[in-house]
Amino acid sequence: MKKNYLQLSAVMFGLMGFAAAQSGFSQPAQAASQFVCPETHAATTNAALQETPEQLASTTNALKSPERENAIRVIVGDLKKKYPGAGSADIVNYMLTAYCPLVAADDGLGESEKQARMDRFSSQVYQILGE
After folding, report:
1. Using CA atoms, how far apart are residues 116 and 114, in angstroms rounded to an integer?
2. Residue 14 lies in a domain
3. Which of 74, 45, 77 has its CA nearest to residue 61?
4. Range of the domain at 73
5. pTM confidence score
6. Do 82 and 112 touch, CB atoms closer than 8 A?
């Protein structure tokens, strides 16, 4: 029960943080309705997975695949092996950072649709992680 509460809390905290970024709290010069992708963490940040911009771009390209779910499984498996101490939230945040440019580039989606797509992707990654 405690594990489920902590996982739910982590998911809610992550989504609230993402929503805050979307609404412009972290970037007041932008319009509140403008879709904004999360920024990558510096490699020296303890909370960040130590991936290079090139590795992040490679992950983004892998997520373009029509076999996206399989790509997510492979990427998540690789990240778990490479970073055994990383929590699920760290992996999901990294995956969201990699996936977001694909959503942002889809001009056929409105702001709320983009947010909904990011939320579904987050849930999918958590589900694959077994959370």
Report:
1. 5
2. no
3. 74
4. 52-128
5. 0.71
6. no
